[in-house]
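Handout, page 2. Input:
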Amino acid sequence: MTTWCCPRAKDLSLRIWSEGGVVFDDANAQLHELTPIAGEVLNQLLTGGSLTAHEILFNVLGEAPSAEEAVQMKQLLLHFKAMDIIECICLDSPATITTQQN
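Output:
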C-alpha cells in the first residue's frame, strides 16, 4: 500500500480561498499558486498524517472517487512530490517502511 505524507509541514504555510490557494515554502522561500482542489488535497496531507490517495480523495470529495479522479489525484501527488512538498511511502509489510522510488 502506498501512502503520502508531508514531513516538512512545519516549513509550509497554506492559505486557501474559494477560488484557490497558495503555499509558501519557508525552506526555499518559494510561493506556489494552487487550484481549489490542490489546496484541499495539500491541507489533508498537512493535517491528516499519512494517507492513501483514495483516503485523500474521499475526504475532499465526500464520496468514492471515479477512475478519472484517481488518475488526476496521482498526477497531483506526483507534482507535489516533484516540488519536494510531500513524500511517497510504500508499506511493504507491517514491519517495513521504505521510501518508494519513482
